[in-house]
Every structure is written in C-alpha cells, then in structure tokens.
Amino acid sequence: MGLAEFVSITICQSKQPDRVDMKTPCKPGDFVIGGIVSQVFYLYDLLSLLEQPTHIVTHEPICNLHYSSVPKNYQHILALVFAVKEINENPNILPNISLGFHILNSYYSARMTYKATLSLLSKQQRFSPNFKCQNQNKLMAIVGGCLSGISANVATISAIYKTPQLTYGSFLPVQSTRMLFPFLYQMVPNEAQQHKGIVQLLQHFRWTWVGLFAVDDDKGNRFLQAIVPMLTQNGICYDFIVNIPKWSYMDEMLDRFLKNMDTYLIMFETKANVFFVYGEPPSFQVLRTLVFVIPLVNLPPLGKVWIITSHWDFASHSIQKIWDLQTFHGSISFTVHSNQPLGFQNFLQMLSPSWAQGDGFIQDFWEQAFNCSLQMANGQHQERRYCSGGEKLESLPGTLFEMEMTGHSYNVYNAVYAVAHALQAVYKSSSKGRKLGERQELFFQNVQPWQVHHFLRTMLFNNSAGALVCFDYNGELVTGFDVTNWIISPNGSLFRIKVGKLDPRAPLGKELSINNDQIVWHKVFNQVPPLSVCNDYCYPGYSRKKKEGEKFCCYDCTPCPEGMISKYKDMDTCVKCPEDEYPNSGQTQCIPKVPSYLTYKEDLGLLTIILSIIFSLTTTLVLGTFIKHNNTPIVKANNRTLTYILLISLLLCFLCSFLFIGQPGKVTCLLRQITFSIIFSVALSSVLAKTITVLLAFMATKPGSRMRKWIGKRLANSIVLFCSFIQACIGTLWLSTSPPFPDTDMHSLHGEIILECNEGSVAMFYGVLVYMGLLAIASFILAFLARKLPDSFNEAKFITFSLLVFCSVWLSFVSTYLSTKGKYMVAVEIFSILSSGAGLLGCIFSPKCYIIIFRPELNTREQLIGKKFKRT
Q1: N or C: which end of the chain has fewer CB within 10 A?
Q2: What is the pLDDT of residues 131-140, one digit of tens each?
C-alpha cells in the first residue's frame, strides 16, 4: 500500500445505487467529467462500504511503494470515509442523496498519476478516457494529493474539465497559480505564511545561526530562493545548506550517503543547534534513513532542534518502524490549526480486518502495522505470526498510527465537507431544484462540476468540530497554524503538544505567540532553551564588531566606550544615556544622576553653618561690647559710626553665607552675589574711610595744616555712601541686563546633576569682584602708608594686616573657584567670605576688644595722649 493520494467525489442517484454493469459499452464522443486517480482501487457507495460487503474491482495487483508502505497514511482514507458517513447520515445536508467515492494511489509517480487521472474520465473498470459511458457515476470533485508534484500533475488534466480539486497537502507555489489552475483549492494556507512564522520563531528564541535542509528538487530550490533573503533581512544567517535526496531505493540512498559523507559531516561540526528542514513526507523518510546510518559510521548522536513545516508528519515506512526517532525528540513544527471531530476516535476503535470486505487497504495496513499475516500459511513456511484481528490501534506507536486526527487527515475531512456544502448551495440556489421536489436525482444529474466553483469560493461554514471553513480569493484555506512540540518516547510513542499559534490575521508583530514553559527540548539541552549562534552572545556592556570575511552573524565583542551602555545582548552599537542619567560600572544600564548642591545635612554644609553662626555671634558680641563702652576713648577714636557700620556689615557678610546653602532657587540666585558684593563693599568702604580718617587726622595735627576742615563724620559717611553706591549701580545693571538664574550642569561631574546658580553675565560677576578688589587694594595701600603713625591715632597697622588677609583670601579664591565644580565651588566662595570677614574682624577689632575687656586701665584719654607725647 502506498499513499492514498486521490479521491474522487461522486454523486449516487440514491442511497443504494444499482451495481455497475461492467459490460456496458461506451460510445465515442460522450464526455466524462473527470476526477483524478492513479489507478488500483475503486470504492463506491458509502452504505455498501459501511454496512455490507462491497466488491473492489482492481485492474492491476496491489503494489507496494518500493516494497514498503506508510501505515500512518491509512488515516487519510479513514478521515474521508468518516466525513462521507457523517454527511450521508445528516438529513440537513444533501437529503436523499448519497456521496460516493473512489480512492486511488499515485505511487509517487507522474506516469501513474496521469493514468489514474484519465481513469476517472473513463467508464468504471474500463480505461477509455473522454468517453461518456452508461452506468457511470457523476464525478463532482477531486480531493488530493498529499504531495505538490502529484497535485500539479492532477491539476494539469482536471483543469481541462473544470473539475474542482482540493489538495490536502502542499502545493507547488508558483507565480500565477490561480491563473494556471483556477479550479484548485488548497486546504493548507500559503507557504509564505509559514516562512514568516518560522523567521519570527527564530527571532523569538534569538537563534541567528541555523542549518538549512531542503529537498533536492525545484520546490526545494524555490524555498531556498525565498527563505535565504528573508533570513538575512531579519538578522539570521545559515551555516550550511544540505540538499535532501528524493526518495529512492534503500540501497541507492545508502550509496549516495556514503559518497557524500563530507557533506553530511557538517551537521556534526556546526555550532548551529537549530536545523530548519523543508520537504514533503518522502523527504522525511530519506532524512530518517540518513540518521539511521549515523551510528553505523561511528558518528555521535545528533542532538539538535528540528524545525519543520506543516507538510511533514512523523510517519514511518513499514521497514522503518523499529528505527529510533530520538534524534527528532523536541522538534517544533507549524501544523494547520485543527480540531478533533467528535466521534472519530470511536469510529477508529470499530476498525478491524473484518470491518469491510471491500476495503482493499485494510489488509495491507493491518499486516504492515502489526507485523503479522491475515492469511494462514496453508502448510507453507510462514515468517510472520498470524493476525488475530483483535489487535488494538491504540497500541501502535505514533509513527505508525495515531488515534487523533492528524493535520492531513483533518484537511481531507474539511475538503469533503466543503464539497458537500457547495453541492448543497448549488441545489438551494437553483429555482429548478426548488420545483423538482422529489426529483432531486434528476437535478444533480444535470449539475456540472464547474457550477460548484462559485459556491466553493464563497463558501463559509462550521464543520462538526466547530471550526470555520472558508477560502480566500486565491483558493487557499483561511486559517492559522498551531506551533506543535513533538515528544517522542524511547518506545516509539508520539505526542503532540500545542505550545503556541501563528495567526496571520493578527496585528503586525503579534502573529506568533509561544509558551516557552510548555516546550520540551532534546535531552542534550537539559530542558534549557538552546543557543544557536555563530559565537557567544555579546552580553550587556559590549557591542558587536563584525569579523572581516565572515557572515554578519559572526562578530567580536568590544566594550562600550566611556559614557555609553548596551543593556541587551548582541547590540550592534552602544548608546548614550540621557543627559539626566549616567552608565553604571558595568555599562549595562543608565542610572539617574543624583542632584548635587550644598545642603544643610552634609558635613561640608554643616561646617559652614557652624562657622557662620560662630562668626556672627562673635561679631554681635564685639558690636555689643563697643556699644556698651561707646564713651571710652578707644571706641571714640577713628569715628564710632564707621566702627558700627563696619561691624554690622561684617555681621551681614557672615549671615549672607546662608544664601549659598540649600537648593538654588530663583530668589536666592538673584540675591546671592548682589547681596554679598554690596555688603562687602560697605565693609571695605568703611575700612577705606577709617584709613583716610587716620591719615587726615595725622596731617591735621601739623601746624598750619588746612586738613582740619576735612576731618569729621561728613567725609567718612560720604566715602562709605559713594563707594557703596558704585557697587549698587553695578549690581543693578547686572540684574537688569543678565540676572543670575537657577540652572543645571549635567556634564561636569560623573553621576551628578549640579543644581547651581548661573551667574547670567560672567563679566558682571567678575566686575563686582574686581570692584571689591580695587577697594581692598586702595585701603591696603593707604593703610600701609599710615602704619607708622603715632599709636594714639594708629589703627592703620591693624587695617594693613586685615586687608593683607583679605586680599590673600580673594586672590586664592579666584584660582580655586575656577578649578572646582558644583557644591565645592559654592563651598569655596562661602569659606572665602567667612575667612576674609574673619580676617577683618580679628585683625581690626581683637586688639581693641582686648584692651576694653582685659586692660580697661589702658582705655583712658591720658594713656592714649601719654603714649602720643612719649613717642613724639
């Protein structure tokens, strides 16, 4: 028994048609509506087949395909019989009309296929094509075949007679298929959908290095021409391409394998753990033969992931049933989405060799599947045991027979129902059919096969399994695919696990869905999803660098440059982090930068606060001491008002450091530099006025001096107001043109966002500093000149030291300020303010405070005047 390739659907005139008279002559010129067959078996009349013995007429002896058969394909026949049985028993479909069928075999041979096709166009049991004969059943449609080449051969002839042909396997995808074969309907969606699904499957598991197997014929070449560019466009490379020989005699295949050993050794040497195989059922038998030879030539077991298309089925020839299939354990395939019709398994359980004497297939199937003989030895030597007939189909391994309906059988089942519904639609749409009433048979005798096409194209129905069946514009079944994981146990048991689905009608990018946890992998992978790449992944923190002279899937891994990251495996380039983020130490992800500013909570900020408070309290104590002793000579000397102004300005200087601590805001940024510069200008103006007062007072003591009229509070106050007014004007101009504002610096410090005050105009900022420097320098020069004046008037010596400290601090401030960033820059300015203010406070007022507090006896006019005269 070979493959049951072709089925012709016929219309019988009643539930129990008369016997065909084999002697009825044919008359030349009569037209026969043809189906396609390959010869051998004619089964007709469903009720006869199921309820009573039916005679099977054969023209030639039953032939085995190369002395072996594929028992599993017998289910295709049973699916046909089951479908016809359901339809004929259903009063809602074709009432009072029976479907009959002829089943023929192609033997994988074009010659036998053409002959079988012509046989359908002849009178029963007589090969006379293109003749209309008496007692000839009405041929309405053809179901078949399983292989694309056979289907094309059938379609070449059946298209002439416009007979609908429904292929339940694959069909050769050629351009203008619909134009060449307008009456062809495919129960399997277009192959291009599977190819896209397989590419998505490879991308899902990140398999970029695969091996390709393709049958060595035109269809395999077409497949390679389509899939190779598709893989390349999606970032996938193939390591090798192996052409699978077409099915031949066993000795020829073994001979070819041994001659081409080097070609097949690449399967064992490759880094690819995924093999994508394209072919039809005979190709799988060839591949099994190659795998079977592997241990014979001392090669290790082959542990790979096999990805196969819907054309494949794990079926064994009778001679292969004891061969180990563990190599293909864990394979993944795309199978046409199918449901299990109710009652099919019960139908199979009724099957036995005595089920129908007219079934010419069952004897060969039974003997091949159970390795026994249904006929007694009759005294002759019998190599095989005798079949009892009570053997159970469920005891057979899945490679020989499955109790659940396979994908191809499900396609046959749907094909029969499609024809039945189309015929039903033809009848209902005809006004003649409505008028004939009981004369249905006469109506169907006048129906021609070409009339069925319109209804097949527009047909839409739910089969008994609840699945929707319809064809698209190209005559292809509208359906999706199931992603099936094949589990093969050591004892040959076969299990299918649905682990996902491929829905071509789903939104773009969501066509494929897979449950990884349900997949069972080959045992060599220890239930871990395998890697299939040219080289190890480039892990996060690295990017890929192409290897010269090799395919783009082969690459080296280079660390990401500084400031860039790669957060996924196998990234082509590293990427920069956003401005507010920075790379972690491994350069695998971006971390948000931490806002950086001088806060009250950190040690540096706390230290500045403590110093500011200490200096402020000290200044307050000094001011309080001077106010308490305001009538003493040492306080009255050199203008009490200037002393008070200087102390108050120094107190404010110490307090203004608080404006620099904390998160910069709009108000604080506006007040920081302006407040600091004006207050310090007042302090320096007071020092300058004190110095000038000392000089004028000494000069006024000389006889005949005209300087007496300049001595007084008016001059000192004028100096303070004038010098401070100039700084205030500079600050006002600064605020009106380019005022300071809150800003962020993303780049100066690694991992930090500096929250700072942008000074707006750098020129204005340095302008106020320069002006304060001029005041300090002027005061220092005058104080230096007056340092040797008599002690009773000499405050200049202390002013000289204080301004020396002041100038040193601010000169060092400039270089330090420019070399620091962030909160440290702010801290430098605060310490400069505090230290320069502390220098003025300490150098000018500490000697006076010492005399006032610890040596009050020196704080008298006599002491001051006495010193003066002693010195003079």
Answers
A1: C
A2: 555 555 677 7
What is the pLDDT at residue 383? 64
pLDDT score recorded for residue 703 = 55
Q: What is the 3-state secondary structure (H, E, C) of 542-581?
A: EEEEECCCCCCCCEEEEECCCCEECCCCCCCCCEECCCCE
Cα distance between residue 635 and residue 848, in whole Å: 8
Q: How far is CA 356 from CA 18, 49, 62, 635, in A?
A: 19, 6, 17, 136
Q: Is 354 in contact with 367 (CB distance < 8 Å)?
A: no
Cβ atoms within 10 Å of 139's Cβ, excluding its own: 23
Examine the pLDDT at 801 and tell me if it is beyond 70.
yes
Helix (H) or strand (E) holding 213: strand 209-215
Instruction: Please report whether residue 23 resides in a domain.
Output: yes
- Lookup result for tokens 């750098």: 762
Q: Give pLDDT, residue 309.
A: 84
Q: Residue length, the chain?
A: 872
**Centroid of chain to Cα 244:** 33
Contact indicator for 196, 217 with CB cutoff of 8 Å: no
Summarised one tens digit per residue, pLDDT across range 663-714 is 898 998 988 888 988 998 999 898 888 888 777 766 655 555 555 555 656 7
The packing angle between helices 603-628 and 640-656, to 10°, is 160
Contact yes or no for 525/303 (Cβ under 8 A):
yes
Q: Is 237:552 a contact under the CB 8 Å cutoff?
A: yes
The CATH number of residue 15's host domain is 3.40.50.2300
| 755 falls within a domain | no
Residue 814, CA atoms < 13 Å, CB-side half-sphere: 12
Predicted pLDDT of residue 726? 92
The three-class DSSP label of residue 641 is helix
DSSP 361-389: THHHHHHHHHTEESS--TTS--SSEEP-S
Same-domain check for residues 198 and 100: no
Task: Scan for tokens 């604080």, then name that residue.
Answer: 668
What are the start-end ranges of the E strands in 219-344?
Answer: 237-244, 274-278, 305-308, 332-336
334 and 344 belong to one structural domain: no
Cα separation, 51 vs 680, whole angstroms: 119
Q: Is residue 722 part of a domain?
A: yes
Q: How does the average pLDDT of the chain come out, rounded?
A: 78
> How far apart, in whole angstroms, are the C-alpha atoms of residue 387 and residue 354?
12
Q: How far apart are CA 602 and CA 607, in angstroms?
A: 9
pLDDT of 521 > 90? The answer is yes
Structural domain containing residue 483? 191-339+479-525
The residue written with tokens 């620099």 in the block is 660
Q: Answer whether residue 370 shows pLDDT above 80.
A: yes
**Domain count of the fold of the chain:** 4
Per DSSP, helices labelled H in 238-326 are 250-259, 261-269, 281-293
251 and 333, same structural domain?
A: yes
- Alpha-carbon separation of residue 123 from 26, 400, 605, 667 (angstroms): 7, 36, 109, 106
The pLDDT tens digits of the residues spanning 326-369 come to 888 889 988 888 888 988 999 998 888 876 666 778 888 888 88
Q: Give the CB-side neighbour count of residue 641, counting CA atoms within 13 A.
A: 13
Q: Are 625 and 849 in contact (CB under 8 A)?
A: yes
Q: What is the 3-state secondary structure of 165-192?
A: EEECCCCCCCCCHHHHCCCEEECCCCHH
Q: Are residues 22 and 113 in the same domain?
A: yes
Residue 752, domain member (yes or no):
no
**Tokens describing residue 868:** 């003066």
Same domain, 443 and 484: no
Question: Which pair of tokens denotes residue 742?
Answer: 């809150």
Give the burial class of 600: count Cβ atoms within 10 A of its Cβ; 0-12 exposed, 13-18 middle, 19 or more buried. exposed
Together in a domain, 206 and 64: no
Are residues 233 and 335 both part of a single domain? yes
Q: What is the average pLDDT across 15-34?
A: 27
- Average pLDDT (3-12) is 46
